[in-house]
Write a structure and sequence with these properties.
It is built from 3 helices and 4 strands; from the N terminus they run ββββααα. It is α+β, with helices and mostly antiparallel strands and about 130 residues long. Mean pLDDT is about 75; it is low at about 5-25.
Length: about 130
């Protein structure tokens, strides 16, 4: 009898980490912005949910922040101090390579109503709002 031929699959290093937001399977790759646990690739880079949401809000709302120290890029950005200076946090998002063009524009209720009126959308069930 011939021995079975098993394929060797790559091992993905994952960590199980229950959180208040629900059970999450987190990658052992840290957030490239603040160093906290990454929840996966967001906008081209490994990022935590907090940094991904901050980047998305900043782009969608076209935010322009001013560095608290007056020296953009000088403020430390880590998982403890990530919220201290928004200008430096956004700058670091861009420095690590997060892509502005990867942020999809959001649809407002008014946008949806207009698309429905123009019959570009057959029904509300055809779209998913953020």
């Amino acid at each position: 009898m011939e021995a079975p031929n098993y394929s060797v699959l790559p091992i993905i290093d994952l960590e199980y980490n229950p959180s208040p937001a629900g059970d999450r399977l987190l990658l052992n790759s840290p957030c490239e912005v603040c160093g906290d646990h990454s929840s996966g690739k967001h906008y081209g880079n490994y990022a935590c949910d907090g940094c991904a949401a901050f980047f998305k809000r900043s782009i969608r709302l076209d935010r322009h922040y001013v560095c608290k120290r007056g020296n953009p890029g000088a403020c430390p950005i880590d998982k403890v101090l990530q919220n201290q200076c928004r200008a430096c946090r956004l700058r670091k998002c861009f420095e690590v390579g997060m892509k502005q063009e990867a942020v999809h524009p959001s649809l407002s209720i008014a946008d949806v109503d207009q698309l429905l009126a123009l019959k570009w959308l057959p029904s509300l069930t055809d779209i998913v709002l953020p």
